[in-house]
Amino acid sequence: MLARVLIAPGGKATASDLADHALGLAREAVSRAPLCDRSQLALRAALDAKGRTQAAIEAGNRAMALNPNNPDGAAALGGILYAAGYRAAGVSMARDASKDADVVPRCAMVVLALEAFRDARYSEALLWSEQVRETSVLANAIRAAAAGELGSGDPNLVLDETGISGPKFRNTVKAVGLQPDLVSMLEQGLSKAGVDVEPVGSISR
Q1: Mind listing the pLDDT tens digit for each residue in 25-52?
Q2: How far is CA 41 from CA 77, 148, 198, in A?
Q3: How far is CA 113 from CA 70, 107, 136, 194, in A?
């Protein structure tokens, strides 16, 4: 749990020494409880923070094999897959995680919102992003970008409600590691919503 807490705020943008510490803790958890899906989930998160995407995916798959009925694990793995460019697999995991769930995991809703936005289904993207009840800069960015693309409602009200800004979006993109083409699409929508962002695609580098 401590490993996951340490890297939760920064994701892939976590300071190297902190990410190393989290990875050490996660590995210790796995050594003590190799058949516990939560220890594998901690390892998945720590490896992802270190930028070791393929190893993180493998840890996520091990966690799913140990506990295939954990929607949070499926959603988190779907998020990593989608951010890494494995769109179909990521969306499939997100949909599986949302089936028969009393509360759809946040990661699943964000993935489904991103996919809807990418496919220009802006009303659906807006709907999914509005359902994310926990604080999520990425969900807020999707909501504002979708509203910008739809050109409906009061952009100022959307920005006031989401609190999204160029710097917040840039930091979130670094933390999540979204693919450059999707970053550019979101930037365009945010610009239409009135968010002062850098030139299209610039923050993905």
Answers
A1: 999 999 999 999 999 999 999 999 999 9
A2: 9, 36, 35
A3: 21, 10, 12, 20
Q: Provide CB contacts within 8 A for 24, sequence distance 6+.
A: none
DSSP alpha helix (H) spans, the chain = 2-7, 16-32, 37-49, 53-66, 71-83, 87-98, 106-118, 122-131, 137-150, 155-162, 166-176, 180-193
Structure tokens at 113: 């919102």
Rg of the chain over all Cα atoms, to the nearest angstrom: 17
pTM recorded for the entire structure? 0.87
Query: Are the beta carbons of 113 and 145 closer than 8 angstroms?
Result: no
Tokens of 64: 């799913």
Provide the pLDDT confidence category of residue 199 given band limits of 50, 70 and 90: low
* 14-21 CB contacts, 8 Å cutoff, 24+ apart: 14/49, 14/175, 19/46, 19/49, 19/50, 20/50
Q: Would you give the end-to-end CA distance of the chain in angstroms?
A: 31
Q: How far, CA to CA in Å, does 16 sit from each of 30, 46, 159, 171? A: 21, 11, 33, 16
pLDDT digits 0-9 by tens, 156-188: 677 777 788 888 888 888 888 899 999 999 999
Per-residue pLDDT of 97-110, as tens digits, reads: 998 778 899 999 99
> Whole-angstrom Cα distance, residue 43 to residue 91?
22
